[in-house]
Amino acid sequence: MPPLGLYIHVPFCSAICHYCNFNRGLLDGPLKRRYVEAVTAEIRGAPGRFGWRTGEAAADTIFFGGGTPSLLEADEVAAVVAACRAAFDVAPDAEITLEANPESADRPFLDGIRAAGVNRLSVGVQSFRQGDLRRLGRIHDVPQARRAFADAREAGFRNLSLDLIMWLPEQTVEQWLESVDEAAGLGPEHLSLYMLELYPNAPLREAMARANWSLAPDDDAAEMYEAAMARLETAGYRQYEISNMARPGRESRHNLKYWTDGEWLGFGPGAHSTLSGARWKNVSATDEYVARASAGQPTDIERRDLTAEERWQEAVITGLRLTAGISIAATASTYGVSLDARFGAELQRFREAGLVEREGDRLRLTRRGMLMANEVLGVFI
Ligand code: SF4
Questions:
Q1: Residue 16 CA: which ligand 1 atom is closest?
Q2: Cα(22) to centroid(ligand 1), Å
Q3: Whose CA is closest to atom 5 on ligand 1?
Q4: Which tens digits make up the pLDDT trace of 327-374?
Q5: Of 130-134, 280-284, 308-312, which gets the smallest average pLDDT?
Q6: CA 377, CA 160: separation in Å to the nearest integer?
Q7: pLDDT at 255
Q8: The ligand 1 atom nearest the CA atom of 137
Q9: Which of 191, 161, 195, 189 is CA-nearest to residue 176?
Q10: Are 60 and 92 in contact (CB under 8 A)?
Q11: How far is residue 225's CA from residue 69's CA, in Å, rounded to a whole number?
């Protein structure tokens, strides 16, 4: 079995951002302490649930996502990493990532998690313009973002990622590119550039209506995406996935498992797992999760085996998110599905529209195709 990825979901935030649709709630100190005990119990119990000996199954990535993982205390992060190392054969050079928000990533915390083995930090900056941050409901300010980055470097982090969001209310192409330039100027190893998605009942929708804020036209959104990628390439980054760029060799090893048909176990409320062709999800509500995990009861719901059809769909849809694309021959031999036979007409149409390209055996989205990924990838479902 190839090494697993271990994902730890931390469901607490200091405030709820106006656009957020993740599984999270406001920080509750006593609940957080019980959550840490529950998640470490869930991790330590994992080998027994799968019939493995303790420490037998190999893992080479750990990822603390949220929510806001930097709301944990450093010793709580250390306890979770120790539980992973006790339950799994975690590689000595494992990539251990923690998502941090600038307001809760102070120097003692960063020193503490470095000592606990965290070696990659992903900082949720989102924008280097104060007005953008306020409109999003983020509680950090721009100087805090700069300070968190500098503190992380001083604490010894040599693998840093920054998140930015484009197409924000009232944001112009020039303003967006100012944020991109400032991010590149800091010199992180990795950048994630997301486009704002407004889910139906997002408070940001109401705020936009009240304040008369508008989004730039679609053409500007496309320009934001394409210009940012071009600038970052000039600065030495390489796009490897629709929303992700890295210096060569600094791609997120954990996230690559999601896009290359890998296997991972998720711990914590709402976390998803994929193993041996099965997929399941933990119960989402934190208090229910804590009650179940603390009592040694199963935390998973919605467990099912993926059909062969679903497995190849996933492999194609996630593989096409990567700039490397997919091997048509490998897809056919692994899943017994010939893309040409089944989707020849659609692929031809996308090629003529400049949305996909083919080079030998590889099929990939063009950058334009990445902007319209939902439409293109939708044909495979
Ligand atoms: S910090 Fe992240 S997870 Fe928390 S509310 Fe904001 S966007 Fe959502």
A1: 5
A2: 7
A3: 16
A4: 999 988 988 888 888 998 999 999 999 999 999 999 999 999 999 999
A5: 308-312
A6: 30
A7: 98
A8: 6
A9: 195
A10: no
A11: 28
Nearest atom in ligand 1 to 138's CA: 6
Residue 373's alpha-carbon distances to 170, 241, 262, 367, 378, in angstroms, are: 24, 11, 21, 9, 8
The pLDDT score that the predictor gives to residue 304 is 93
| 8 A C-beta contact, residue 289 and residue 269 | yes
Mutation to probe ligand 1, out of 10, 21, 68 (largest number of atoms < 8 A from CB): 68
Question: What digits encode the pLDDT tens for the residues 56-106?
Answer: 999 999 999 999 999 999 999 999 999 999 999 999 999 999 999 999 999
The predicted model scores a pTM of 0.97
Q: Which of 12, 14, 16, 104 to mutate to test the pocket of ligand 1 (most atoms within 8 A of CB)?
A: 16
Q: Are the CB atoms for 252 and 93 separated by under 8 Å?
A: no
Tokens describing residue 294: 């603390």
Q: Is 369 left (phi over 0), alpha (psi -120 to 50) or beta?
A: alpha
Answer yes or no: are the C-beta atoms of 326 and 335 closer than 8 Å: no
CA distance 2 to 340: 30
Q: How far is the CA of 342 from the centre of ligand 1 (A)?
A: 41
**Span 185-227, pLDDT tens digits:** 999 999 999 999 998 889 999 999 999 999 999 999 999 999 9
